[in-house]
Amino acid sequence: MAIRLIEEADDLELHAALTSRSDLDEMLGADVALDVTHPAASAAIVEFATGAGIPIVVGTSGWSSERITEIAQFVRGHDDAGAVLFVPNFSIGSVLGSAFAALAAPYFDSIEIVEAHHAGKVDSPSGTAVRTAELIGEARGDAGPVAAPHADQRARGQLVSGVPVHSLRLSGVTAEQRVIMGGEGETLTISHSTGSQSAYEQGILLALRRAPEATGVVVGLDALLDLGLPGTVA
Fold first, then answer.
1. CATH of domain 92-195
2. Average pLDDT of every residue of the chain
3. pLDDT band at 95 (very low <50, low <70, confident <90, very high)
């Protein structure tokens, strides 16, 4: 899909399409790289691109905040390093859903995330759920951590920034996320579902067009939408 979008765009031209058997040198000379591979391969691709001074858009899931911080430290230490834009989800609706969750987070102490993806997705929780939980944690600030009773029990999900995250991997599902917030006498659910991969097209093109202008390490498509959420890694 990404290749088709590039070939159809009047302002973009495909430099090279690499496979798992390609030499990473094939990306040299490109204005921007797009990594949509596998968590086990992504780190080497990002390191090569940044070292070569090529801005890169990373759509591969599985990047933890610790690993992103390591990349940020490398970029800071090299003036000629390419910028890195980590995009947990290219869907505009998904990005807005995470932003709405961050907006509501200070007003509810009970918050949990349920995310579902197709059975073939190899990582869990999803990058989108991790990003959403991190935004919730940051947004709560003085409100303190989310109330997560019995978090030591495995069935309570994985804690990400103090928020329990539950992952489903099911046939028949593309991508879904629900952020459920509980308060006195009420619940608020912020839900987003993806019906087809066409939902990602607008975000992919936006990231590719903006990446050459980016500096440092940026996390989240929301940083390109001026939503006022934390995005740049210092």
1. 3.30.360.10
2. 93
3. very high
Whether 192 is catalytic: no
Structure tokens at 147: 């109330």
Domain boundaries, the chain: 2-86+198-233, 92-195
Domains 2-86+198-233 and 92-195 belong to one CATH topology: no
Catalytic-role residue among 15, 38, 117, 150 = 117
| Mean pLDDT for the stretch of residues 141-146 | 91
Give CATH for domain 2-86+198-233. Answer: 3.40.50.720
Q: For residue range 187-198, list pLDDT tens digits in order.
A: 999 999 999 989
The distance from CA 220 to its chain's CA centroid, rounded to whole angstroms, is 5
pTM for the model stands at 0.84
Instruction: Check residue 93 and give its pLDDT.
Output: 96
Catalytic residue, from 15, 38, 121, 192: name it: 121
Angle between helices 201-210 and 92-104 in degrees, nearest 10: 90
